[in-house]
Each structure stands twice: as C-alpha cells, then as structure tokens.
Write a structure and sequence with these properties.
Bound molecules: fe (ii) ion
Low-confidence stretches: 1-9, 168-176
Largest sheet: 8 strands, mixed
Distance between the termini: 50 Å
CATH architecture of the largest domain: 4-Layer Sandwich
Shape: globular
Structural class: alpha+beta
CATH class of the largest domain: Alpha Beta
Radius of gyration: 22 Å
Number of domains: 2
Oligomer: single chain
Mean pLDDT: 89
Strand order of the largest sheet: 13-14-15-16-17-19-18-20
Length: about 500
C-alpha cells in the first residue's frame, strides 16, 4: 500500500486536536483506492505504541473514515501509526510514525505555521508547494493555518497536472486561461480530494485549520444562486478535520444560525480556540457579505458579536497573546486589498459615526477598535500574494502572507503586488514560503521561512524556483518579535 503519495492514490490522515474536548483527537482517513480495515496504535514515546484502537472499515473512495480517541494526557507529545489490513486479511502494513501534541496548557511553549493563497491555478507550482509543505513538516509545529484561496473552485473546476503544476489542458504560457468554475458537486469533491492528496503529506502530524478565501465558492452574494455554497462546506466537512464548534466544545464559533436558509454544515469558517498562552481566532468575511466591496463586505452581526465576546472573555481571563487570521480585511482598498493603509476603512476600521450609520445597532465599534481594546497581538492576512510585515500605529502587527506556491516570483513581482495592494510601508518581500510563529510564556517570534525547490529526482524543470546562489531553502528572510508586558497587557 502506498501510504503517502499525491493525486488521490494514497491513504492520507487529517487530524484535529481538542475534538471534542481538550484531551482528544480526531483522525480522518481517506483513500481513493484502498479497502480493508484500519486501526491506530499510539503512545507517548517514539517507537512505542502501547495503546491501540479497535479496527474500523476503510471506506474506499468515499467520505473519510474517522477515529475519535479520547482520554489522552494533557499537554503531551504523542506518536502513532496507522495499521492497515487489506480486504482479505493478508498483506497488512503500518504507516511511518506520525505525531501530535495535545492542547497546550498556559506556560507551555510551542510553534505554529501559516500559509496563504496556494491557489492551485496556472501560476501555482506544485513542486514549490510540496517544498513548502516539507519545510513546514520539518518545523514540527503544533498546527497549520491556511488563509484561503485554497480550493479555488470559484475559478477552476479541474485538478492540476501533477508534472508541472498547471491546469490540465492549459499551457504554462496561457496563464490567463483557466478552466471554468465548478458547476457540479462531483467537480467540487474532486478539487477538495485533489488538494487533500497534497495536504495529506503533512496533515497526519500537523492539524490543518482552513480559513476561507474569496475563491472558495462560499461568497454569499456572488454565489447566492450557486449550489456551490452547499457543496463547498460539505466537501470541507467530509474530507478535512476543520473545527465543528456545535459538536466540539473545545472550539467556539459558527453554529447554525436561526432562520438560516442555506444548508451549511457543522464544519465552521469562523472559530476560535486557546492554545498555551494564546487565543486563535479565524474569521470569514464571505458567508454573510451582501456585496463585493466596501460596506457590502461584512462578518455579519452573529460573527461580529461572537468576535466581540470571544476577545472580551480572553482579556478577562488574562490571555497574553491574541492572533487573528483571515483572508483579507473586511472592506479594505480596491478589490479588498491592503494592510495598515486601509485599516480605517469600512467595517474593519471606520470611525464611530460612520460605523453607526452603516452598522446601526452594532455598538459603534469597528473590528480594528475591538482588536485594539483587547490588545490583539497580530492580524495575519493573505489575498495580496506578497510578504508585507507592518505594525499599525495602534500597536497591532499586520502581517500579509506570501504564497507557498507561486511560480516565477521575484523582487519586481513583489513590488508590483505591493503596489496593487496599496502598501506604502513595511518590509516587502517576494513569494514563496511560509510563516513560522514561536510562542512562549513571555514572547512571540514570527519568521518568514523561504522556500526554494531542492534538486531531486522528480524532473523539476523550472529553474526560477530552484535552490542556487542566494536561494537557500528554509532561509529566514525576515522576522519580528514582541514581548508581553503584564502592566499594559500588550505584546510589543
Ligand atoms: Fe489569492
Ligand atoms: Fe484572495
């Protein structure tokens, strides 16, 4: 049996800690072409697995097979293997050793990683994305946040060609052409399954938190007549272990809204959880939006109220670090782009009078104002396809993320993207790579880990993204730190 490979022929695992409670885990297994039974052996020492689950059937090509393991030790490193017995009972194999860490207690140091805009379009490079995935795996973070424009089903209905990372049927030179948007549920499922075959290279050991982008077929107004609004959440529910706050009280966030007409599933697109000394908040400015720009973009009052109470409770509880994750600011500049230069716009940052005019009954405070009042440490956002490290005058770090997978990127491309995004300040650097954040009791450190494709045997021909002079894989091209001040409650 192939345990981890790409393009849907593998048995892949996707895990979520704290589900349903802090000392538990969900392991979702998927295989396109294997049937039989599977079990999980696990323990707290590498190479030793004194506990084993009962075997359950592996559903070939269907929705995922799911293990729920409870009773784990708090704040503890675990190691596990998946045992697979094919139908017929002979030829059983074990996966390599995987790992996970149960929910961190306050005072426990940890790291996590973030990437944004993998796209899977004609400007995506599969080998570069695989290099970024590998780089993140070797960081051994507790989890990964993906900040959207990930499944890209609002633009494309086909999988990518595995050889050079271009859309099947399109040449690398005709980047303006792509396949049309997803129009059937089968196409939607195929995109989600295809992406899983790549994420599956690391999600056995790194829980993946999905945050919606604008190209995920989940934008309320633009897709209001499209059944994709139902297909996309269903595919996320079936193939990924995203939080389900209605069923997993370790997480807070979306639960079905009263009077909600759309069929949305328990897999949430806005949610929060605590880990160590930090609060993590993922936001979705699409589901509830009534337009595609300015005040038409919104969290919606239920999500806004939930954000307000989530931040207030964390402040009351003395949580030291608070991180916000979303694809783009709610409003922003042209095409929802930009960082600190557009923070004062629309729902994200309008003054009280303007906010009250446009959001009557919401209490008069913009999102940014809520973040300032609660000493939010950093806002991590994507959408603009360039690394921009900025700090707002109000003390909040605004970190725009690079893509993990963009082909043919360089300084002039970064400059062009920054100009398009309206960025006037900050450290601006080209794609591609990921962000690694390390958190301990007193400080936060964020690093831009650059990706360059290592020479390997898989026939990679695009020289632009290969390692070489000045191109060292996993080089740290920028970083920032902050230190917690107990008297102010800020990390600066
Ligand atoms: Fe994007
Ligand atoms: Fe985007």
């Amino acid at each position: 049996m192939t345990v981890t490979c790409v393009n849907g022929t593998a048995l892949t695992a996707s895990i979520l800690l704290g589900s349903p409670t802090s000392n538990s885990i969900v392991i979702k297994l998927f295989s396109a072409d294997q049937s039989g039974s599977v079990s999980v052996s696990y323990g707290t020492t590498p190479g030793s697995y004194p506990s084993i689950t009962s075997p359950i059937a592996l559903i070939t090509g269907g929705i995922t097979t799911e293990f729920n393991i409870g009773g784990l030790l708090a704040d503890t490193q675990y190691y596990y293997k998946i045992n697979y017995t094919p139908t017929g009972g002979t030829g059983g194999v074990q996966t390599p050793e995987y790992r996970f860490h149960t929910a961190r207690n306050p005072g426990s140091a940890f790291s996590f990683v973030i990437e944004a805009d993998p796209h899977w379009d004609v400007n995506s490079d599969i080998y570069l994305f695989r290099q970024t995935l590998q780089n993140m795996l070797t960081d051994q973070p507790d989890f990964l946040l993906d900040l959207g424009d990930t499944f890209f089903t609002e633009k494309h209905n086909q999988a990518l060609d595995k050889t050079e990372g271009v859309l099947i049927g399109n040449s690398t030179t005709s980047k303006s052409t792509g396949s049309p948007p997803v129009s059937t549920e089968a196409q939607m499922v195929a995109r989600y399954r295809f992406n899983r075959s790549y994420f599956g290279l690391i999600t056995h050991s790194i829980p993946l938190f999905l945050v919606n982008g604008n190209h995920e077929s989940e934008w309320g107004t633009r897709n209001s007549t499209s059944p994709g609004l139902n297909w996309a959440p269903k595919a996320r529910l079936d193939y990924y272990a995203n939080p389900k706050p209605a069923l997993q009280p370790f997480y807070s966030g979306y639960t079905k809204l009263s009077g909600e007409s759309l069929v949305r599933y328990d897999s949430a697109t806005w949610y929060s959880w605590r880990w160590g000394d930090a609060l993590f908040v993922a936001l979705d400015p699409y589901w509830m939006s009534t337009g595609s720009s300015g005040w038409g973009l919104t969290l919606g009052k239920p999500q806004y109220d939930w954000l307000k109470s989530t931040l207030a409770q964390a402040t009351l509880d003395g949580v030291k670090f608070k991180f916000i994750f979303l694809h783009n600011l709610v409003g922003g500049g042209t095409s929802m782009r930009g960082g600190i230069e557009v923070v004062n716009q629309y729902e994200w940052g309008a003054d009280t009078t303007t906010f009250n005019t446009n959001r009557p009954g919401w209490g008069g405070k913009s999102i940014h104002q809520l973040l300032v009042e609660n000493n939010v440490t950093a806002v991590f956002h994507g959408h603009d396809h360039v690394y921009v490290n900025q700090i707002h005058a109000d003390g909040i770090r605004y970190q725009e993320l690079p893509q993990p997978s963009a082909r043919n990127t360089n300084a002039s491309g970064a400059s062009a993207n920054a100009t398009t995004g309206g960025y006037l300040s900050g450290t601006i650097l080209p794609n591609s790579g990921h962000i690694r954040v390390t958190v301990d009791q007193t400080s936060v450190q964020s690093e831009y880990v650059r990706s360059w494709v290592e020479p390997t045997s898989y026939g990679y021909s695009l020289t632009t993204n290969k390692v070489g002079t000045g191109k060292t894989n996993k080089s740290i091209d920028d970083s920032w730190t902050c230190t917690y001040n107990a008297s102010t409650g800020k990390c600066q």
